Design the sequence.
């Protein structure tokens, strides 16, 4: 094993200059795309201003249109947009039917109110619908929709399975499990469809909830058989081969990883919730360090090497940085002038576009120009 | 290379051992073919070589199997991964990643090979298997033959000394099967890989085998030896061997070429047939039971059928052939209303399939899908039959009676999933027939069937046709089509490119011609030759 290790470090690719070029088409590191989209999502989470939200949506859409490949998952942006619209619509419908927590004086119309028994006090069905309530729901829904669109953008630009492929060795097995789970969902849907169709062949109807439920058992049986077959195939292909490592090292690695993860989670919560938490940044740094050390220790167990790893070069730095900048700028701005990022709904007023945050959001456009084009298969 | 020492395998819930008394050595660099009827333990034997038996499947392994000097009792499958490459029956179940190139590299990554080596081997393997064009493709977008080649390639990149394949060509059309076998041939020649494979369709592979490992049946000890010698004793035989036995040739021919050279004398003994001997005269064309005219069906963005014209007549057996993805299953699906036509019309027994109620439709047309398990939901055979009677509003006991006539000896209390492939197919057939549909469709019925089960299926379908049923079967099995079908239609790219009496269609094409037709045209099957040889009373 030690000889292998030596050779592995000796045989690093020598053509490292080419990866910085943006004219040579290649895949950008999935991590860069996810960092960029998470930056945009963090920015969106800090604002309720519909103009800013729409601007973020436009920026994400522009980059996706410019830099997505032609793989099947590249079409997922549209699906996420539709999902976002659905969420938005649902949010507004709920606000209309169930009423809204923000009071208001501008009554748009009044729905007949359903009298509810005494134990359901506090729940209201129907009644008057105010402009303020609808606006509030609209902004809230829009924020959720834009968050979804950011995730969709990352999905379209780099499939999650590619991201998981570049996980550190210690997390690799968990990553494979996640990838397998993700491919199983579409297979399951295909199975349900096929078996529902097969019901027709038995002279039973293929419509309705009962038709779906009745194929549940066969579908599960099929999925189970398939996972067993896949597990067997993976085993015969050497999945899970490990190097001999002292037990103490493994335990220390595990403990460090866990502590690091907890620290990072707590710090992220502190950073993203309203109010200032001075402890958040140091905890984030300490957590990240512990996590890194734990993963490095854990990786010593794996013998795995990586085939053509995605390089992390100038375009990746620019992409990730642009996303982080957008997020950081809006978080900072929201701390300073919160009222500019959350337009008042009581009383309703036309939202205004704050100049500085808008310019910051535009930084998110950078990847559309700074990254190389993805390779497209010539068919 | 592979040594078996007194190997026996017994699974926990089985009364009989799955394998017993295997004591032999497979030498290095040979292509060794496993031959035997269903249930003889072929898959179990293959599993012992890759270490899946017993580490993964459970059960008790007696004796010792060593591969390249490693004992499978002490080495788990993952520790054998660098010497044994295993490809199962369904290549899709073998894939872990989502593109061709990543899949080829996956095994090497697990073994921790240096990146430079991986890069070189992926390129070599892409060339060796002719996959260079497909390197960036998503695995889900490949055809059956391409998938099988990628699956083989994905285990080849680690340079295993032994390659284990379970039915590598069963799901493939004749052309794709040739492709895969040519690759195996090249591996044995160029790389000296030891290949161990099992296959039901012997007519495709027996000519490539250096050695045959015969598993005569459950409980009997296996024998390893020369293919021609063992074929003389084997209970399962390809048509070319049957023809050799009929003509009394010794040693038996294994390839069409051998047989053709020997056949001169036999050809003289055969009466010159005035017209090609059809399996049976096609019945006179009455009114069609089902018609498709200018049928266009789209599945996703691409049309799967483009303007198909087809009419099916009572009492006629039609074989539908064509490569994987040509639209055969879609055509069958349209006839039972699973796919609505984009344009054109389908009529079955006066009904429009996709608009009819399922309850009415099953009295007109029945389909046995590619995987008969799709049709079976119940816990036991008896419940399944009772449910079929209720679905069809038939007398209670109808389905069970049909099943008993089709195949005796299926236990009422067994779970449909535990039946053998042949039994399960028969059960699905009985379920479909309970509604007495005049039109019967079968999708790839002989996949995974051994010769005995296939012969039973042929008898059943002939009887049904004689009773006036119309049968349409989609199949890759040229021998089945030649033996059974009155008429053959060939689909390509969603269009019917040939349609006519089976002898005319299969004799015109080397891909679809059965072995006998290549040796003694215009005879299609060994049975035809045998009939022509027996002196008949002239009327």
Sequence:
């Amino acid at each position: 094993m030690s000889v292998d290790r030596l050779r592995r470090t000796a045989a690093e690719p020598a053509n490292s200059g080419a990866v910085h070029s943006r004219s040579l088409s290649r895949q950008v590191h999935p991590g860069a795309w996810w960092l960029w989209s998470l930056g945009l999502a963090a920015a969106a989470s800090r604002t309720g201003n519909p103009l800013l939200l729409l601007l973020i949506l436009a920026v994400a859409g522009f980059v996706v249109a410019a830099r997505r490949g032609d793989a099947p998952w590249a079409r997922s942006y549209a699906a996420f947009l539709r999902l976002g619209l659905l969420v938005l619509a649902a949010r507004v419908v709920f606000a209309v039917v169930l009423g809204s927590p923000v009071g208001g004086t501008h009554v748009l119309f009044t729905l007949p109110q359903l009298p509810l028994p005494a134990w359901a006090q506090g729940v209201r069905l129907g009644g008057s619908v105010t402009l303020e309530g609808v606006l509030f729901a609209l902004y809230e829904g829009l924020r959720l929709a834009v968050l979804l669109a950011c995730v969709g953008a990352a999905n379209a630009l780099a499939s999650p399975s590619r991201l998981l492929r570049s996980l550190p060795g210690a997390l690799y097995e968990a990553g494979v499990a996640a990838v397998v789970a993700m491919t199983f969902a579409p297979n399951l849907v295909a199975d349900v469809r096929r078996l529902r169709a097969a019901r027709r062949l038995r002279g039973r109807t293929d419509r309705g909830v009962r038709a779906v439920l009745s194929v549940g058992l066969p579908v599960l049986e099929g999925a189970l058989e398939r996972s067993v077959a896949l597990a067997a195939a993976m085993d015969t292909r050497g999945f899970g081969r490990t190097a001999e490592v002292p037990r103490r090292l493994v335990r220390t690695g595990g403990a460090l990883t866990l502590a690091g993860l907890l620290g990072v989670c707590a710090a992220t919560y502190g950073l993203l919730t309203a109010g200032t938490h001075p402890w958040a940044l140091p905890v984030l740094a300490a957590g990240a360090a512990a996590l890194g050390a734990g993963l490095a220790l854990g990786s010593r167990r794996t013998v795995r090497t990586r085939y053509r790893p995605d390089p992390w070069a100038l375009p990746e730095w620019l992409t990730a940085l642009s996303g982080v900048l957008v997020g950081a700028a809006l978080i900072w701005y929201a701390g300073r002038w919160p009222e500019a990022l959350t337009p008042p709904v009581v009383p309703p007023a036309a939202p205004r576009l704050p100049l500085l945050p808008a310019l910051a959001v535009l930084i998110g456009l950078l990847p559309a120009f700074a990254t190389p084009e993805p390779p497209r298969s010539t068919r | 290379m592979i040594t078996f020492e007194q190997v026996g395998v017994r699974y926990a819930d089985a009364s009989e051992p799955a394998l017993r008394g295997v004591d032999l050595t497979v030498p290095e660099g040979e292509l060794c073919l496993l031959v035997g009827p269903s249930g003889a333990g072929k898959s179990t034997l293959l599993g012992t070589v890759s270490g899946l038996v017993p580490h993964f499947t459970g059960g008790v392994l007696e004796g010792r199997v060593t591969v390249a000097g490693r004992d499978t009792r002490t080495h788990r499958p993952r520790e054998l991964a660098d010497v044994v490459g295993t490809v199962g029956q369904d290549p899709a179940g073998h894939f872990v990643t989502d593109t061709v190139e990543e899949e080829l590299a996956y095994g090497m990554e697990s073994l921790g090979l240096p990146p430079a080596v991986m890069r070189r081997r992926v390129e070599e393997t892409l060339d060796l298997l002719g996959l260079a064009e497909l390197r960036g493709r998503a695995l889900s977008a490949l055809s059956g033959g391409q998938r099988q080649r990628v699956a083989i390639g994905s285990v080849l990149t680690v340079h295993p000394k032994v390659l284990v394949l379970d039915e590598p060509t069963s799901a493939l059309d004749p052309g794709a099967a040739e492709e895969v076998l040519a690759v195996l041939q090249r591996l044995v020649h160029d790389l000296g890989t030891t290949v161990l494979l099992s296959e039901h369709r012997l007519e495709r592979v027996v000519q490539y085998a250096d050695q045959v490992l015969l598993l005569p049946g459950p409980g009997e000890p296996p024998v390893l030896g020369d293919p021609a010698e063992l074929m003389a004793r084997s209970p399962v035989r390809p048509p070319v061997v049957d023809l050799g036995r009929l003509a009394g040739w010794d040693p038996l021919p294994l390839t069409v070429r051998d047989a053709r050279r020997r056949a001169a004398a036999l050809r003289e003994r055969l009466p010159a047939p005035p017209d090609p001997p059809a399996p049976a005269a096609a019945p006179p064309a009455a009114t069609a039971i089902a018609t498709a005219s200018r049928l266009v069906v789209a599945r996703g963005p691409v049309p799967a059928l483009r303007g198909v014209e087809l009419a099916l007549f009572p009492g006629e057996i039609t074989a539908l052939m064509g490569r994987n993805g040509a639209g055969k299953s879609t055509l069958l699906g349209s006839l039972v209303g699973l796919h609505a036509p984009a344009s054109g019309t389908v009529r079955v027994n006066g009904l429009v399939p996709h608009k009819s109620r399922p309850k009415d439709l099953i009295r007109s047309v029945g389909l046995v899908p590619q995987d008969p398990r799709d049709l079976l939901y119940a816990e036991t055979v008896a419940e399944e039959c009772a449910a079929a009677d209720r679905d069809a509003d038939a007398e209670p006991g109808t389905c069970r009676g049909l099943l008993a006539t089709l195949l005796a000896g299926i236990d009422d209390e067994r779970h449909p999933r535990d039946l053998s492939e042949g039994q399960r197919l028969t059960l699905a057939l009985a379920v479909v027939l309970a509604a007495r549909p005049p039109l019967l469709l079968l999708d790839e019925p002989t996949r995974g069937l051994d010769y005995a089960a296939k012969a039973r299926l042929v008898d059943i379908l002939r009887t049904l046709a004689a009773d006036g049923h119309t049968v349409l079967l989609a199949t890759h099995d040229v021998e089945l089509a030649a033996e059974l079908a009155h008429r053959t239609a060939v689909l390509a790219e969603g269009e019917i490119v040939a349609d006519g009496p089976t002898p005319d269609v299969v004799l015109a094409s080397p891909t679809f011609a059965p072995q006998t037709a290549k040796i003694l045209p215009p005879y299609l099957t060994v049975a035809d030759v045998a009939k022509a040889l027996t002196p008949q009373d002239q009327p």
Notes: Chain B is about 35% helix and 20% strand.
